[in-house]
Automatic annotation (TrEMBL):
Name of the featured protein: S-formylglutathione hydrolase
UniProt GO cellular component terms: cytosol
Keywords per UniProt: Hydrolase, Serine esterase
Origin species: Marinomonas fungiae
Record's function text: Serine hydrolase involved in the detoxification of formaldehyde.
């Protein structure tokens, strides 16, 4: 691992690293916030999955999360949102597919199937690396925004026992039924919509073997609300399956990091409680 930068914040340290990833067959950059408590004991970790167009830096620069994480003694790991360094046809042409838009799936359609294995990267490879090299425990939680909210929810639903808690901001709840998801899943997974269901929160909720309570915040002034995010689909799926959901519709808030920064402390507290902090 190559240390790219080290910055003191809220009594802890934000460090950025580049490393070679086996999952995506190339270099990846991630950031980790380590609170001061990590200097004397191992601390649990929240994995934050960002949305379309993001890198590891959007959350660290805009969410305002580190003061609360420092108080709680919680580490936060922030991966990138796609592999970088390839140049497939169409990979860099649109904001909602290819680079910056890995959708946290394992692609099966060439050429993306060569490297776009963001699900394996965030669920397995990155936690293994983090737990080997940093003063953290194997107690993990996961959260994210929009495409990353979808990622957080599917990672938790597909991996019972792996996370202590899950939450999301404005998640793409039903990607098999919205334009962002249809475009990404066609390009990464192919035309068979049955295959897509294994990567859709609303589909996974029905058969989940672990029922971690979901905390979801959704801005009511979010431009993407009706066409892409569909919180009512999540509500219906949870109600049908008897899955606990706290869906907070926040009046006046949009899709931006201003919205995330307004409620991130509540999410950190939710995760801290589940992590025993
Ligand atoms: N560029 C697009 C919209 C891009 C956008 O809103 N990205 C969001 C995530 S959207 C879902 O995954 C984001 O977090 N952007 C980064 C930021 O720092 O705000 C457009 O122009 O509409």
């Amino acid at each position: 691992m190559e240390l790219l930068s080290s910055t003191k914040v809220s009594g802890g340290w934000l460090k950025r690293y580049r490393h070679e990833s086996l999952s995506v067959k190339g270099d990846m950059v991630f950031a980790i916030f380590l609170p001061a408590q990590a200097e004397s004991a191992s601390v649990p970790v929240l994995y934050w999955l960002s949305g379309l167009t993001c890198t590891d830096e959007n959350f660290s620069q805009k969410a305002g999360a580190f003061k609360k994480a420092a108080e709680l003694g919680l580490a936060i790991v922030m991966p990138d949102t796609s592999p970088r360094g390839t140049d497939y046809p169409g990979e860099h042409e649109s904001y909602d597919f290819g680079s910056g838009a890995g959708f946290y799936v394992n692609a099966t359609v060439a050429p993306y199937s060569n490297t776009y294995h963001m699900y394996d990267y965030v669920v397995k490879e990155l936690p293994t690396l983090v737990e080997e090299h940093f003063p953290v425990t194997d107690k993990r939680s996961i959260s994210g925004h929009s495409m990353g909210g979808h990622g957080a929810l599917i990672c938790a639903l597909k991996n019972p026992g792996r996370y202590q808690s899950v939450s999301a901001f404005a998640p793409i709840t039903n990607p098999t039924q919205c334009p962002w998801g249809e475009k990404a899943f066609t390009g990464y997974l192919g035309d068979d919509r049955e295959v897509w269901k294994a990567w859709d929160t609303c589909e996974l909720i029905a058969t989940a073997s672990e029922r971690l309570p979901l905390l979801v915040d959704q801005g009511e002034a979010d431009n993407f609300l009706e066409e892409q995010l569909k919180p009512e689909a999540l509500e219906q799926a949870c109600e049908k399956a008897g899955h606990e959901l706290t869906l907070r519709r926040q009046s006046g808030y949009d899709h931006s990091y201003f919205f995330i920064s307004s409620f991130i402390d509540d999410h950190l507290a939710h995760h801290a409680k589940a992590l025993g902090l």
